[in-house]
Amino acid sequence: MPAFLQDHPGLGSLGNVEVPRLKLLQASSPELAQFEDARQGEFWHSLLGKNIGPSIRICPVFINWCFILWRPREAGGGILARADDGKHWTPADTEFTVKLKNGDDVTWRTGRTVAASGLNKRGSYNPNDPNSPPAAARMYSIVCSFPDRQNWPPAVLTLQRTSVKAATKLIDQLRVLRAPSFGVILEMASVKDESPSGEFNNYAFELYGPVEDKPFYEENSRQYRFFIEHGLKVKDLESAQDD
Fold first, then answer.
1. CB atoms within 10 A of CB 78
2. Residues contacting 52, CB < 8 A, separation 6+
3. Distance between CA 221 and CA 168 in Å, rounded?
4. Residues 93, 240: Cα–Cα separation, whole Å
5. In degrees rounded to 5, what are phi and psi of residue 141?
6. Burial class (CB in 10 A: 0-12, 13-18, 19+), 161
7. Which of 44, 52, 91, 188 is least surrounded by Cβ atoms within 10 Å, i.e. has the fewest?
């Protein structure tokens, strides 16, 4: 690229961009049937339509979390409500009557806030079963850049339910570092895990080292500032229900 083009990076681009997803493919992932090179337990870049393999080095450019109220898959799936700031529902004060897998009809009400609705509490999925999980899923979104493939567009990981533990462990590790997250390189790998529903593929993160490429660091920093100012919009977020 000519030097004069590098003087104003990012200008002239669309501000309302949706970030593609970086998916860890599960047995139920539709990509397995759609693409010949898609493999269960390996990472998939949704914009490139590319299989990345079972491990890759990433930089966590930007991290946020929200709550999603998903319609049960058995009832058609999709997003009923969301709290992008982790606090306030959109739509607020709205009731949804849904049919659960066991055949029960239950009503979820968003209220004005997540805390007021109680939908983030255990037992809220099925009010008749105090041991049922929360109706609302906490979702962590991690925008990744790729130190070994700097020409690739950034992509976002969406971690929820059985992957929340991996996300919170990563965030705890990043908090003790004396560098911004976008200045850190991680080795991300797919690992086998188990839940009451059976075996699945989960995330494992390991610190690799600091970013030493200054232009790459500055680009990560620019992207971080963009998301701080404009917020994060994830492309095809509804397809994340099956992650």
1. 11
2. 22, 42, 43, 44, 45
3. 22
4. 25
5. -115, 125
6. middle
7. 91
Q: At a CB cut-off of 8 Å and minimum separation 6, what does 11 contact?
A: none
Q: Which two tokens stand for residue 177?
A: 């570092």
Which amino acid, one-letter code, is at 8? H
DSSP 16-44: SPPBPBEEE--TT-THHHH-TT--TTSEE
Kindly report the number of other CB atoms within 10 A of residue 187's CB atom: 14
**Rounded Cα distance, 55 and 57, in Å:** 7
Q: Is 86 left (phi over 0), alpha (psi -120 to 50) or beta?
A: left
CB neighbours of 43 closer than 8 A, spacing ≥ 6?
22, 23, 24, 25, 51, 52, 53, 54, 55, 56, 188, 190
pLDDT tens readout for residues 165-192: 999 999 999 999 888 999 999 999 999 9
Which single residue is written with the structure tokens 């529903």?
A: 197
- For the chain, what's the residue count? 243
CA distance linking residue 162 with residue 167, whole number of Å: 10
Alpha-carbon distance of 147 to 212, in angstroms, equals 10
Say which residues have a Cβ less than 8 Å from residue 231's Cβ, sequence separation at least 6. 84
pLDDT score recorded for residue 65: 95
Q: pTM to 2 decimals?
A: 0.89
Q: Give the tokens for residue 135.
A: 């109706």
Quote the tokens at residue 71: 């319609």
